[in-house]
Amino acid sequence: MTQFNLILLGPPGAGKGTQAGRIVAEYGIPHISTGDILRAAVKNQTQMGLEAKKFMDAGELVPDSVVIGIVKDRLQEPDTAKGFLMDGFPRTIPQAEALDEVLDALDRGVTKTLVILVDEEDLVRRLTGRRICRSCQTPFHVMFNPPKNEGVCDVCGGELYQRDDDTEATVRNRLDVYRNQTEPLIDYYDRAGVVARIDGAQAPDVVYESIRAALGPAGA
Ligand code: ADP
Ligand code: ADP
Ligand code: ZN
């Protein structure tokens, strides 16, 4: 059985969440977004959420030990047997090493790392205009991808909101953090020979076609 152990890598605003919805629908694998899991913990005011919130509000990374724990737990769930789509994880070399260890123990490995590339000024425009569904987390954009009815999710009818960290100052910091801590992962996965570079500046449907071409057919 072909495994789809996939990673979506790219700067904040590259379109990872937008593409993730399409990928998981076609390839039948679960979407594992550490950002979504952390935001749910903040909302529910769990111990982890209270600890994570100050890092998230500042646009800094939550400590590796916290996110590695989240992912290890999630990979114990049976729905990950055929594969998974990691979105926003790993973001540091220690996180990538921890993921490799977990997969190694399961006799599995990363099948493909999709790196979505977009210019920095476009990223700022995308993030400051982003709106997210409170119920299903689908991202929209006030200009580039507006919902049919203002403030309402096309997918589930949920309410759209703006994330606290999608302000220009925090966005700039998140982009610096990406460059310093996450971009080195492209080399890490290049050494493993699993990288596919995707031009993320195109329209979402065109970006998705490049992703499909890189992944190959779902049923193979
Ligand atoms: P975006 O989609 O804009 O890239 P995410 O939703 O992935 O943002 O992440 C939002 C915030 O959650 C990050 O700025 C960071 O504080 C925290 N976070 C999410 N994933 C990780 C991770 N793998 N390691 C550390 N912090 C993380
Ligand atoms: P990420 O998960 O990488 O942070 P998102 O998928 O949330 O990125 O997208 C960031 C913002 O950019 C959202 O407002 C989304 O609607 C918009 N967006 C996503 N893909 C595109 C695209 N190809 N062209 C223009 N805007 C896009
Ligand atoms: Zn929704």
Describe the structure.
This protein is of the alpha/beta class. The chain has one domain: 3-Layer(aba) Sandwich (Rossmann fold). It has nine helices and eight strands. It has helices spanning 16-27, 34-43, 47-58, 64-74, 93-105, 120-128, 168-182, 184-191, 204-215, and strands spanning 4-9, 31-33, 83-87, 112-117, 130-133, 139-141, 160-161, 195-199. The strands form two sheets. The chain has a five-stranded parallel beta sheet, with helices on both faces. A three-stranded antiparallel beta sheet has the order 6-5-7. A hairpin with a 5-residue loop joins strand 5 (130-133) and strand 6. Helix 1 packs across helix 9 (204-215), helix 2 (34-43) packs across helix 3 and helix 4 (64-74) packs parallel to helix 5. The longest helix is centred in the last third of the chain and has 15 residues, at 168-182. The mean pLDDT is 96.
Please supply descriptive tags for the structure shown above.
about 45% helix, three-stranded antiparallel beta sheet, about 220 residues, 9 helices, binds zinc ion, binds adenosine-5'-diphosphate, Rossmann fold, alpha/beta
List the secondary-structure elements in sequence, H or E.
Answer: EHEHHHEHEHEEEHHEH
Give the overall shape, derived from the CA principal axes. Answer: globular
Count of individual helical segments:
9
- Derived from helix and strand composition plus strand pairing, the structural class reads alpha/beta
What's the average pLDDT? 96
Summarize the structure.
This protein has 220 residues and is an alpha/beta fold.
